[in-house]
Design a protein that fits this description.
Order of helices and strands: HHHHHHHH
Shape: elongated
Distance between the termini: 89 Å
CATH superfamily: LemA-like domain
Number of domains: 1
Number of helices: 8
Strand content: under 5%
Length: 201
């Protein structure tokens, strides 16, 4: 009886391996891990923003519109529930990507405004926050690239034969990815040249 049970288990294991079930599961876990890292780095950036805005406001309070845009963009990002299910919903993923892109744009504008304030640029707290932000943007780029690769491997695994049959039976679908047309823009960390002279005011 035990031999029959072992033989049945071995057969089922071989069947599952042959149909790509195990590989799809492995790829899915890699996507989830990569996504967690993307979220972690985006959260790190979001956590820096209140201090950055407060520091800039101390020197450039009348740049109200720029400061409000950063705050609003951060609130928009925070309003999106970045659950694991989000990476299985193309519309929710696109909304998340758009919100993060808008936040990146707002931060870039804030740092450009900072160029006009020599005292702000000389502030040690601002310089530290700016360095942390640039480092975080680089980490975001690395994490996002890992996610892109993981999704690519997963999507290939559910589209190729015979795995696609297993995916169809199990209801596994392609996962959305960061769009190529936005990738170049959102992957560019904000740059501030502290050595450049401030424009005359």
């Amino acid at each position: 009886m035990k031999l029959r049970l072992l033989a049945l288990l071995a057969f089922l294991s071989a069947l599952l391996s042959g149909c790509g079930y195990n590989q799809i599961q492995i790829n899915d876990e890699q996507v989830n891990a990569a996504w967690s890292e993307v979220l972690s780095q985006y959260q790190r950036r979001a956590d820096l923003i209140p201090n950055l805005v407060a520091t800039v406001q101390g020197y450039a309070a009348h740049e109200k519109e720029v400061l409000e845009r950063v705050t609003e963009a951060r609130a928009s990002v925070a309003g999106i529930k970045a659950t694991p299910e989000l990476i299985n919903d193309p519309q929710a993923f696109a909304k998340f990507q758009q919100a993060q892109g808008e936040l990146s744009g707002a931060l870039s504008r804030l740092l450009v405004v900072a160029e006009n304030y020599p005292q702000l640029k000389a502030d040690a707290n601002f310089r530290d926050l700016q360095a942390q932000l640039e480092g975080t943007e680089n980490r975001i780029t690395v994490a996002r690239n890992r996610y892109i690769k993981s999704v690519q491997e997963y999507n290939i695994s559910v589209r190729t034969f015979p795995n696609n049959l297993t995916a169809m039976v199990m209801g596994w679908k392609l996962k959305p990815n960061f769009s190529v047309e936005n990738e170049k823009a959102i992957a560019t960390p904000p740059k501030v040249d502290f050595g450049a002279p401030a424009p005359a005011r």
